[in-house]
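Hello support,

Our group uses your service weekly, and this is the first time we've seen a run hang past the timeout. The protein is MYO1B protein. I'm not sure whether the cause is the sequence or the server load. Input pasted verbatim:
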Amino acid sequence: QDNSFEQFIINYCNEKLQQIFIELTLKEEQEEYIREGIEWTHIEYFNNAIICDLIENNQTGILAMLDEECLRPGTVTDDTFLEKLNQVCATHQHFESRMSKCSRFLNDTSLPHSCFRIQHYAGKVMYQVEGFVDKNNDLLYRDLSQAMWKASHSLIKALFPEGNPAKINLKRPPTAGSQFKASVATLMKNLQTKNPNYIRCIKPNDKKAAQVFNEALVCHQIRYLGLLENVRVRRAGYAFRQPYEPCLERYKMLCKQTWPHWKGPARDGVEVLFNELRIPEEEFSFGRSKIFIRNPRTLFKLEDLRKQRLEDLATLIGKIYRGWKCRTRFLLMKRCQIVIASWYRRFA
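Update from on-call engineer: The timeout came from a worker crash unrelated to the input. Re-ran successfully.
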């Protein structure tokens, strides 16, 4: 019910995770269709980059304003921080404040004077500004660090390396907000290099009870998790895509013309293969470098045919091997019989 600095930076992290989810699923999915030259009707979705910019922008972001207030000389309070937000973010469509210049919020009695509200991707959240400045400073005075470093206990000394007189740094330590922002940026950079899989959990009720589904709660979670946009893009798009070379290599045994070797471009080989299997044209599309398959059942059909063909090939290999083995044994016995017969005739 009461959200302060801690909940603010947690929600900022959630916004960044939602942003990377949007980029890697919705945005990248649609851009790939355009890149591959696939006929595609663009599906609109909400991109929360505008909310992330409101929080982390280096000049006008809330974290930048908070750091500026913490570092400027003079009397600094949570109220002066809120006044600065009202001046800088007043016209932002996702920022609301009782003191804001936007007249539509001046009569909002649900918003106290010491609070501001951000319209996050998941919904509106109201933050109490009390404690923002102190929590962001997160200062440990230099003389306290030096005193702890002089302790005789080795662990205490290791916990306060900044107290070492030989390594005194006169620079002001970074604020909690800037440290958290740098940490989130490192996390995002790390996630961008991976191929993540998403598991979305829906909480059916607040009572932790079995067989109880709160429809309003479930619908709210589905909306703010972005599942509706994701499902719309997936249903309108293609369930499976693969470069032509690996696709031809995997399924070439299903067609006599492509088995065992196809001499020519891989795309032509895939086209011959799909025509031979009589797969409906609406079930696939040819991109510039990939084959796109619309429904999973088409892929399952290909896999079933491949599995059956592999079993047939294994039977054929076994049959040929057994025939070769029996013939080899027969020819050996035949040569032996000729030798034995010739020796017997000479003896007789």
